[in-house]
Input
Amino acid sequence: MHLILGSHVAVYAADVDTRSLAHRHGLVNPSYVAAAEDRQMIYVVSEDISGPGSVHAFKISAAGLEPWGEPQPSGGSQPCHAQVHPNGRFLLVANYGDGRVAVLPIEADGTLRPPSCVVAHEGSGPDLPRQDGPHAHQAVTDPSRRWVLATDLGTDEVMVYRLDESSGTLHHHSTARFVGGQGVRHIAFHPERDRAYVTAELSSELVECAWDPVEGVLTPGRSVNTVSSDGDPVERNYPGAVVLSTDGSRAYVTNRGHDSIGVIDTTVFELIGTRDCEGEWPRDAALSRDGATLFVANENSGTLVWFDVSARTPEHITDAVLEAPEVTSVVPL
Output
């Protein structure tokens, strides 16, 4: 099995079977990678804190990762997330530094074009200095493909947009407001129900939300602590990624600080427990395409670790560790 890894130092093509990094490209803080549906193209954000952000395209070939076209501006500062729209014609980019969400057109051959649209979030939150202004953290398409949802850690909001596919522009439709100080980060949709799950980085919670794909309205509901079932974590913890099992029965949350994977039963919406992440500061996670394996990127220990998720809680696979310096994101091919 092969993976593409983002990190603070390089983009890697990884071979799970040989536990090796087969290919690398050095960029300025390539912290997040996104793949086209056919896994032929990879798009990488350059989260450069010293200047404007940029996005780079790579074609996957037998020789590894081949740079493809010219880098394009991310539409803001410190881009931290990207997703290829299901139609394959646009890349959605969240810029953490200034709270801007951009749409970059993708040509038929996979080449990126400059942003066709940039929207700027406004506002702040009570947890200073983390919420001193807007900080867009993710922009994703819902399962109906009708809406784009953008989380903002700085304003405690999720914005719902309609994407005009003829012009590549976003139009604001509705806003979901969360509890002040939660710091919403990432969102995942249930595959069979009208539900979505949002990680709250600053309050160490997972928030269950009702999602109406017809009206385009997200409604925050109950929350659960991702570390402690009694809601009283021993230490400050910052949930990062949330991944749902293929049947949607379990949500896996990476706990940075507690260094664990929080497992939530979505049927009753309760914390089953936590599983040691076998590393430090798990920033990202992703399921293999068959849904049987959970890959976890441990940023501070520089390790990619994977788990068997066929049971109720993840089980670490023997010797399932790959050294990847400052790894921050993972995409299974």
Observations:
- The longest strand covers residues 52-61.
- The two ends are 7 Å apart (CA to CA).
